[in-house]
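Practice problem: predict the structure.
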Amino acid sequence: MYRVPYGRTALEFELPGKMRARVAESRPAKPLASIEEAINDALNRPVNSPPLKDLARRGDRVCIVFTDITRQSPDHLLVPALLRELASSGVRAEDILLLCGIGMHRPSTLDERIAKLGRDIVERYRIMDNEPQNPNVLVDLGTAGGGIPLSVNRKAYEADLLIATGIVEPHQYAGYSGGRKTLAIGAAGESMIAYTHGPRMVDHPGTRLGKIEGNPFHQAITLAARRAGLRFILNAVLDGEGRPVSIRAGEPEATFEALVRDARQLYEVQVPQQYDVAVAGVGFPKDDNLYQASRAASYLFFAPTPVVREGGVIIIPAPTPEGAGEGVGERRFLEKMKQARDIPSFLSRMRREGYPPGAQRAYVMAKVLEKNSVIIAGSQTPEVVRQTQMIPARDMKEAFSIAVRKLGREDLEVLIVPHGLLTLPIVEQGGRINFSAY
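Answer:
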């Protein structure tokens, strides 16, 4: 019996008789015994930086950029700790802005803000969402290599002290998320988000999961954060159950590098070969919609070597009650995917014409679907799954039956990745099979 996350619960299933499975999970890591103590220790001994209480002073305008509900960052613990440090330096509550880095996602709700920060903080502090489509609240930061337009929310730019929270985990574009990304993408303007998620960036061989060096996306957000004036971060690394195993604070670049070292030890797992089928779990909140849940498929595809062989099948158990999703980006993803019936032509057109932010998920998924079938098992919105050119299945039994029909045999090699967004399978050199158009 195998078990993967499914919404707020879990889904158990068995393999059909002739299939053989291997499970790829993040390496076991001991959760922090006391998260509060770990946060205090990180703030008292920051990486390559004075303590936050020495950076802040009374009268400073402070902006803390925190993650939205699509990220599991424990901001309900990180942000209060930052606020206590600022208060100890005499910074007044009225001089602090909490900026939700929504990127191109929908605006945050009151309930989500309370879940992320706690009711007391929501009631006491000013909280705003980034507005990526409002030029009046953005600052032009110039360009990065290749003409990438950089921008940031004006409130963040004009702050005397700019801070960000986040989690460091495998990320399809940045290599690893967290660090500067909460600010540089979460609080950026639409043009920057569009370019950094555009076809040239997605097609670049340096834009891959786990890759930092030579990654143009990573280089762009690093430069944007420098120009915006990001001075301090407090980030965590989480295990597959969402429990912090590492927390560090300090100067953004040095702190991020230290956290990536921690994350690699946890997330990167060697597997001996490519597989016929992969089952990738997601879990709440990311399997609430297809925009986020489909990342499990693209993570397996955009690993250093694709985890599923060409012609193989990726199965994602996900309830997707929101369908494709409710934000601007999510709606754009759905509209584009409705047009993707002829995948090669669709990809050519998107390369030629470009696409707005959000629609990059359609381009990414089209690249996956060009090589692999993707099945969403247990979706509450099967018609939307069909509209996105993926295949709905009532349950895992039907999903495996579809895989057998697609591949024409029953003795399939299956890789089960319970935490598909928190595990980076690395195909060993002997099992490498490169896609001709990858």
